[in-house]
Design a protein that fits this description.
The complex is a heterodimer of chains A (143) and B (583). Chain A is 54% helix and 17% strand. With 143 residues, chain A is of the alpha/beta class. The chains are: A alpha/beta (143), B alpha+beta (583).
């Protein structure tokens, strides 16, 4: 399996940098963003297997960023991180299309496992989409 | 000064509101006013009734007495005047020489008694005062009356009626006399009347015999009640007839002198023995007599007394009933009021508690959030350090380790400052009064809200140029007040909104803290109710207690809270607080 790519989004720079280093040490390709806006810009530029997104950020918060990201690419697998998880927020996030919601501080192994899940899900989604597309083409342009 | 200065705690204030003394005062007031309103008209009405009844009863009692006196007066006057006229006629129509003859007088006596009756004897007295002729049962011819007063009185008055006297014969009688005086001669014609006749005219007691009754002409109608006494007195108050009350003829009556009246009169008086009497009397014209009908007042008031008794009994029963009903009603109402006050106080207490819990919950969530971020950094830094030590072949560089440890220390310090703030906030459990810097207090509170302000891009502006005054008050209570107001302001504004905090010294005693936002504003129909308990517009999200508790606390601190709001433009809460002093 190829290296999964992850985007880390959090306003706490120290947290992002340290976590990035740890994830990289576990064989992931990590990119970081310090705000929702930066995250959107990065998601526009390229695609990620998984995105770790902090809920509470100044300016554009987690939920808004989540919406923006899904607009750019509905296949994006987003895991939300929060310092204070309320049931209502979790339900909202899931409804909007988040893959999972983890509470800070999260265990690194759990985090990696979720990212792998996300990557797997994304690739299967992608495969399915490609298969669908192929079938579509076959049906339409069938000879 | 105010309660705040004396430092009365809110709980004591609440206790005073539902103290037993207060309810007793209310109860007494209710019973008194209720009874007064019920009993006073009753007493007034009874009084009026009693007086009217008394007047009627008295009139009924006294009318027969007056009638008796008037009728008696008429009978006696006509009795005397008939006989005086007869004597005058005899004297006028008889020549002088015939008057000197006693035998002629015998004829006159027979004739007069045939016509009028009751005349015992007749006598003629000449100018010298000697009785020159006499007709009657006694031998009184030649008697000299010249020394007697009555003879002179005949001189001055045309006719004369004497008091009752015993005279020469030792029997009670009275004399009537008329005079004929001209240039040639002077004669007095004198007749005596046995006073037995008065007993017929004035029946002091029920007639003893049929005979007596039938011979009492003109006095049948003068029915005298058995309890009454009728008699005649002269001007000196001496009895002229026998009396049940005062004894026999010529005994003194014990009555005070009765004022003269030409008509029959009624008097209430006491006689010399101290006996209360109702007396009707009439003076008999041209005579020294006064007809008196006396009735013991007790007897005449017997009806009134029984009425009085009935009325007093009725009043007592009514008043007892009224008092019982009013007291029972008042006790019931006051007990209900006390119970509902107690429940309200308990509810308010519970509300305060709920609000405090809610505030603590909010605070806890905020603190957890604040602490989780540095905690994550610590976790990840420590985790990375471990990774480096366990997974890589070569040991990590000194710089790497230092930087990671710095990260951990910095984050730990952040956690430390949060817990420090929290400890400061926890002081709200102390209820003591202390000097407070409002600026510091507000900035501490905003410390908890800074994150939210940052996330939501809310601008908090401190708008007080001069050094804000220090006030003496209760820290925890003020923290709760301002935290509630700031929470409301944060809830009201959109992301990117503005909140302006102002502190203004109003005068030497008070300071105003205003918290203004440019949020949604409060509709006019809500603004009157926002301080009401359980009034909320955050359907399901709010308890509706925050502002009501805030209002209660500000009141207890001796201050006041006002609100101005325009929908779409924002809301401004202003809390005015006494500056207070530590003493």
């Amino acid at each position: 399996m190829s290296e999964s790519t992850v985007l880390l989004v959090d306003d706490e720079e120290e947290f992002v940098s340290v976590l990035a280093e740890r994830l990289e040490a576990r064989g992931l390709t990590v990119d970081t963003a310090g705000s929702g806006e930066a995250a959107l810009a990065k998601a526009e530029a390229r695609t990620f297997d998984a995105i770790l997104l902090d809920m509470a950020m100044p300016g554009m918060d987690g939920i808004e960023t989540l919406k923006g990201l899904l607009e750019i690419n509905p296949d994006l697998q987003i895991v939300l991180l929060t310092g204070r998880a309320t049931l209502a927020q979790g339900v909202d996030a899931m409804k909007l299309g988040a893959l999972d919601l983890l509470e800070k501080p999260a265990d690194i192994e759990t985090l990696v496992a979720r990212i792998q899940d996300a990557a797997t899900k994304r690739s299967s989604l992608q495969d399915k989409r490609i298969a669908n597309k192929m079938q579509d083409i076959l049906r339409k342009k069938g000879w | 000064m105010s309660d705040v200065k004396r430092g009365i705690r809110p709980d004591e204030d609440k206790d005073r509101l539902i103290s037993p003394r207060r309810y007793r005062k209310v109860l007494i007031g209710m019973v008194l006013s209720g009874s007064l309103i019920a009993i006073l008209p009753l007493l007034i009405l009874s009084g009026i009734n009693y007086h009217q009844y008394q007047d009627t009863l008295r009139a009924e009692l006294t009318r027969p007495m007056i009638r008796f006196a008037a009728n008696g007066k008429q009978s006696l006057e006509s009795f005397l005047s008939e006989r005086l006229s007869a004597l005058s006629m005899v004297l006028r129509d008889t020549p002088p020489e015939e008057l000197r003859d006693s035998r002629n007088l015998d004829d006159f006596l027979v004739t007069l008694n045939q016509t009028f009756g009751e005349i015992v004897d007749l006598g003629v007295i000449d100018e010298t005062g000697v009785q020159i002729a006499y007709s009657g049962p006694f031998d009184l011819e030649g008697l000299d009356y010249s020394a007697q007063d009555w003879l002179r009185e005949v001189d001055t008055q045309a006719a004369y009626v004497s008091d009752v006297f015993m005279g020469y014969r030792g029997r009670p009688h009275l004399a009537i006399a008329v005079q004929r005086a001209n240039a040639a001669d002077r004669f007095v014609l004198r007749a005596t009347i046995d006073t037995d006749v008065f007993h017929w005219l004035v029946p002091a007691r029920p007639f003893e015999t049929e005979d007596q009754a039938s011979s009492c002409r003109g006095c049948h109608s003068l029915g005298v009640q058995p309890s009454s006494d009728a008699f005649i007195i002269n001007q000196a108050g001496v009895l002229q007839t026998s009396s049940r009350l005062y004894g026999g003829i010529l005994d003194p009556s014990q009555l005070p002198s009765l004022p003269y009246s030409s008509e029959a009169e009624l008097l209430e008086l006491e006689d010399a023995n101290g006996m209360p009497l109702v007396v009707s009397y009439a003076q008999i014209e041209h005579s020294p007599f006064t007809l008196v009908l006396a009735s013991a007042r007790v007897a005449s008031h017997a009806g009134l007394a029984s009425l009085q008794r009935d009325m007093v009994a009725f009043l007592v029963v009514s008043i007892v009933l009224i008092l019982a009903v009013v007291t029972a009603g008042s006790v019931y109402v006051v007990n209900r009021a006390r119970e509902s006050d107690r429940q309200r106080a308990a509810l308010f207490h519970k509300m305060e508690y709920t609000n405090k819990l809610a505030a603590i919950g909010r605070l806890g969530a905020g603190v957890a959030h604040e602490i989780n971020n540095p905690l994550s950094i610590i976790t990840e830094s420590a985790g990375l350090l471990k990774d480096l030590l366990t997974h890589s072949e070569k040991p990590p560089s000194r710089e790497k380790i230092t930087s990671l440890v710095d990260s951990v220390l910095k984050s730990a310090k952040r956690c430390g400052s949060i817990t420090h703030n929290l400890l400061g906030f926890a002081k709200q459990l102390d209820v003591g009064r202390e000097p407070l810097n409002l600026d510091t207090l507000l900035r501490e509170l905003l410390g908890f809200l800074n994150k939210e302000a940052g996330y939501r891009n809310i601008q908090v502006e401190f708008d007080y140029p001069e050094e804000p005054p220090t006030i003496v008050s209760e820290r925890g209570q003020l923290q709760q007040v301002f935290l509630n107001l700031l929470n409301n302001a944060f809830a009201a504004v959109e992301d990117g909104g503005h909140i302006k905090i102002g502190i203004r010294k109003l005068d030497s005693d008070s300071v105003a803290v205003s918290i203004a936002d440019d949020g949604v504003g409060i509709p006019e129909e809500h603004i009157e109710r926002i301080f009401d308990p359980f009034f909320t517009t955050k359907k399901g999200a709010g308890t509706g207690l925050g502002l009501s508790i805030t209002y209660g606390i500000v009141e207890k601190l001796g201050g006041e809270i006002t609100v101005q709001s325009t929908v779409g433009q924002g809301t401004c809460f202003t809390v005015t607080l006494p500056i207070g002093s530590e003493s």
